[in-house]
Amino acid sequence: MRGDPWLSDDQQRVWRSYLALHALLNERIERDMQQASGMPHAYYLVLAMLSEAPERTLRMSQLADLAQMSQSRLSHAVARLEEKGWVRRTPAPDDRRGQLATLTAAGYDQLVEVAPSHADTVRSFMFDPLSDQQLAALGEICQVILDRAGHGSATDEDADEHDEDAEVGTA
Amino acid sequence: MRGDPWLSDDQQRVWRSYLALHALLNERIERDMQQASGMPHAYYLVLAMLSEAPERTLRMSQLADLAQMSQSRLSHAVARLEEKGWVRRTPAPDDRRGQLATLTAAGYDQLVEVAPSHADTVRSFMFDPLSDQQLAALGEICQVILDRAGHGSATDEDADEHDEDAEVGTA
DNA sequence: CCTCAATATTTGAGGGTTCAACAACTGTTC
DNA sequence: GAACAGTTGTTGAACCCTCAAATATTGAGG
């Protein structure tokens, strides 16, 4: 039903390392976030993306793209963030189907408060152990895989260009 | 409250790539699994770990360690896998607190049926794009980080040695 | 204008995960 | 051997995510 399955022994080993790595990292990030702000990491990313957008405002669908989540997931997420007072939703002026999500002042404050400990977690866990060469190698590895994702055998990708502008920072 | 936070620009870029990569990979794996077997990837790992154990049987706590989940999570998971008839639970003979989880024949069949497409997803997405050097580099990167995890600034790790023996394969 | 397919977003149900509390048992210590 | 701390595993509530269905709107064509 597809091309030759199975992983080589080397691939197996690396795959298990990758799984272990991610499990551990994720656990720490989520614990950290939960402690610091009572929200999951995914919600933090939503706030971060908004903070980098002009007017700290984005259409729901763009925000979903940037935060890499489904529209449904985002809708639930923003509902919750709105309850907390960190995001506000207003109807889009030009398209009456749309909604604009805006980061509130309280949301921005929250982001600023949480960011340092999050960044520290990521840096100390993931990056401190790596040499400069390894950091570069990891960057290229991710890029190669991402670039090739979409050709493979699956759905599709619409590939917006990236948009460097670190207001508060992803990590 | 911790050592110098913030990521360098390079680290930021790599971190975002990593996030994008994982989001995409995870999405495909989960979609694949759900389609092929109606269970999440985490449950597949539980079956896989059992398949590699002597007698296809493990104490709940060992299984939780190997599958990298909390006991609570595993308990819920095994409850569900038991409903599906893929795992059976029996009281441990030596310790009356304990439970043994055993992979049933049906569970093994399920694993064998699902494994190829899963392996193919992982290989084609993650490994096909990589050169041999990149595969090796990735392996080392994961190892370095994992080795240093536990010293860092966090909780603790008990570090069991690994245990090569691919009955059906993690991926 | 009317219809129809496509887009944008929300909703609710179903299931997964976490966290804290609990129940049962073990091993040690006095 | 009674008390107690520690281990093993389960439970229920709260929350998050997915999927499919619903709602509202747009834009293209006839």
The CATH superfamily of chain A turns out to be Winged helix-like DNA-binding domain superfamily/Winged helix DNA-binding domain
Helix-residue proportion of chain A: 55-70%
Would you identify the regions of chain A where 5 or more consecutive residues have pLDDT less than 50? Answer: 153-166
Q: Summarize the largest interface: chains and residue counts.
A: A-B, 63 and 64 residues
Overview of the structural elements:
- Chains A, B: One of its GO terms (molecular function) is DNA-binding transcription factor activity.
- Chains A, B: It holds the Pfam family MarR_2.
- Chains A, B: Residues 155-171 have a biased composition (Acidic residues).
- Chains A, B: This is MarR family transcriptional regulator.
- Chains A, B: InterPro entries: HTH_MarR-typ, MarR/SlyA-like, WH-like_DNA-bd_sf, WH_DNA-bd_sf.
- Two copies of one chain form a homodimer.
- With 171 residues, chain A is mainly alpha-helical.
- Chain A has a single domain, classed as Winged helix-like DNA-binding domain superfamily/Winged helix DNA-binding domain (Arc Repressor Mutant, subunit A), CATH 1.10.10.
- The first copy, chain A, is built from six helices and three strands, in the order H-H-E-H-H-E-E-H-H.
- Chain A has a three-stranded antiparallel β-sheet.
- In chain A, a hairpin with a 7-residue loop joins strand 2 and strand 3 (99-103).
- In chain A, helix 3 (60-66) packs across helix 4.
- The longest helix of chain A has 29 residues, at 9-37.
- Chain A is globular, with a radius of gyration of 18 Å.
- Chains A and B meet through helix 1, helix 5 and helix 6 of A and helix 1, helix 5 and helix 6 of B.
- Chain B binds a DNA duplex (30 and 30 nucleotides) through residues 30, 34, 40, 42-43, 59-61, 69-77, 79-80, 92, 95-99.
